[in-house]
Amino acid sequence: MAEVVIFYVFSAVTLFGALGVILHPNPIICALHLVATMCGIAGLFFGLNAPFIAAVQLMVYAGAVMVLFLFVVMIFNLKQEGKHIFSPGQFTNGLKVLFGGMFAGLLLSSILFKINNFGYLTPDKAAPQFEVKNIAKVMFTDYVFSFEILGLLLLVIPIGTVALSRVRGGTHAK
Amino acid sequence: MGSDLFEISVNIGKMLGIFLLMVQMVPLLVWVERRGSAFIQNRFGPNRVGPLGLTQLLADAVKFLFKEEFRPPASVAFLYYAAPVLALIPGALAFASIPLAPPFEVTFNGQTYKFLFQVFDLGIGIVFVLGISSLGAYALLFAGWGSGNKYSLMGALRASAQMISYELALGLSLVGILLIFGTFSFSEMVEMQRGPLSFTFLGQPTTISFLPNWGIFYQPLGFILFFAATFAETNRAPFDLPEAEAELVAGYHTEYGGLKMLMFYIGEYGHMMVASALATTFYFGGYELPFGSESLQQSFSPLAYSFILFGCFLTKVLVFLWIFIWVRWTLPRFRYDQLMDLGWKTMLPWALFNTVLTAVVVVLFHSSGS
User: Fold this and answer.
1) B11: contact with A, CB 8 A cutoff
2) What domains, with CATH codes, occur in chain A?
3) Model confidence at A152, in pLDDT bands (50, 70, 90)?
4) Which domain holds residue B106?
5) What ipTM was estimated for this complex?
6) Which tens digit of pLDDT belongs to each residue from B98-115?
7) Structural domain count of chain B
8) Helices marked H in chain B
């Protein structure tokens, strides 16, 4: 019973946030809706008895990535009156609907494929494989190579960023 | 929650009690802060209302309650009102997951119940607290952008950049603690810090009987980095650039007054309490007494013993809170580029060094779960 309540509450938060992201004209409010989506997804993970993944979701996406997004959006001071996603009388609206529909179809079919082949993920089924020690064991034994490669990729990004900003005179440029 | 009425009601009482503990500490801390700052600066501080000026807080609370309700016309209503509430939530949630004393058993109507001395135990303590407290930046961002004021916005931008920068050093300084204890759970960590200092040195079990088995002796550098980073995360001086009153009027809470302002205060002190409680749990043995807990445990009932250890925990937390206040009134504020340089060029490399050093030491000594 509790899981059902948790699921519906956080699904509603996630969907509300996701709709807000694409429907609101103001970019900052959009970013805040995305934060709500991230928190909703974290809540869904909590409901699946995966508190570690939920907390990491909060820490990485809601805590770090979205704060940076907001920071950048606020610094660039975008115009408050942005464009609505479906501004009337434009030819590209058809394309938007078309590509959006294609992407939605792709997502839906992959979800349906997952459910048909593996069944629904329930809290009791999810618990053991989401435990911290099991995650760590799998990550550092079976998938250690891809883990290290990903770490290297992430290391390349900050080095590249520093190198690029140095070309322009660095952070203390006059 | 619990299986019957007694368990549920005790759990709800506990939940309220721990939340109120956090909120009710705030007026006392404000008093300590004002009297303490006066003591440090050779002034008197509030000493007119009541004994030692203690009822000044009551007068302040009444003043806060009866102030005019006001919203700037350029503000965004939802964000403006949501920000003070949001400032309270991360601190309260994080504080609720920290064990304040060992669990105790109570017999009622012939049944024995076991209660934790904390609101919930997720078993992933550190990650949960880091995840929740990283949401603290949103209260400042909401307030800064929602007020429709340039100074507020500047404060919010500073706050977000600062919190992200120091979260890295904070997280990395805790990796050493994770390597030493090998667990995420606060209660397991505290259990491991019981008794005298003992570890396996080159295959020889060594015990130093005059020192307690506290994390500070394994992670001195980690503690310094952690404690410095918490100052930045709580936006306290010398890291209070989000509200630097000499530059930004009052930063993100320029447009707030009355009870809404008070809620930001409670949030800030709540973060301080969480930071102090975390420092106590990681590095100073949590609720464990340094010495003589066995004889105490035998001479008191389990409930009384729990409360004695709760007093021990509270004492340690209060010491840290005093250090927070002490530092605020001793050190001047950083310049913004100094703040960023300290975070990225000093604390981050040292935290990485601490991580590597701890890993090497753990492998060399290979103390199986010291």
Assistant:
1) no
2) 1-84 (1.20.120.1200)
3) very high
4) 5-365
5) 0.76
6) 888 877 777 777 777 777
7) 1
8) 5-40, 56-65, 77-96, 125-133, 136-146, 150-181, 186-192, 220-233, 245-248, 258-283, 293-299, 302-328, 336-341, 348-365
